[in-house]
Give the backbone structure.
Amino acid sequence: MVEMFLNSLLYILQAHSRWMSWNLFLAFTPLGLSVFLFRRKSLNRSLSWWLGFLVFFAFLPNAPYVLTDIIHLVTYIRRVDSIWLITLILFPLYLLFMSLGFEAYVISLINLGSYLHRIGKTRWITSAELITHALCAVGVYLGRFQRFNSWDLVTQLDVVATSLIEDLLGKRPLIIIAITFIIITILYWITKQLNLGIILRQRSFMKSRQQSSKRVSQTEN
């Protein structure tokens, strides 16, 4: 019984490790770019900055895209007979995977919002977020249903554009994109509030420690 459980566990990890690692790599690519683009001290926007900005938006849909990988969970639930493997391994594995990918999306946009605030465009933040959600909803649709990749925007832009225009003329693709946009928007708002709450608590904690250290220092003197 134990040996069967361990063999099933090994099978699940082997079956998921490669594609999950690759998808997380794609999801974290825009996060790394957001740090380079939006968190650096200089506010100058050179040619290399704009190229990085285009690459950032080309890869950004890969982060919320991980939410659609839940279809693989349904497939593997049908293959696995043990309720314990499903409950203790599959569900936590997919939850962690999707949480990490979407967290990369949220932090990327928080970095973008921070940059807009620094250049005096705070009023643009909400609009920029909504536009980004919409673009990513289109990107997720193209990736999941049309099987395009981020680099196809460079290698076969004409094919991507033609396919997108044809799809937008249909009712079903528009409904899928709209639902994806709503899901991304809601999950983003919730996750962003959680992140900002954690950041504020950390800042408050650090401020309290600094004030305590200052009072101790003054008392000793």
About this structure: The CA atoms of residues 9 and 85 lie 7 Å apart. The longest helix spans residues 171-220. The chain has a mean pLDDT of 88.
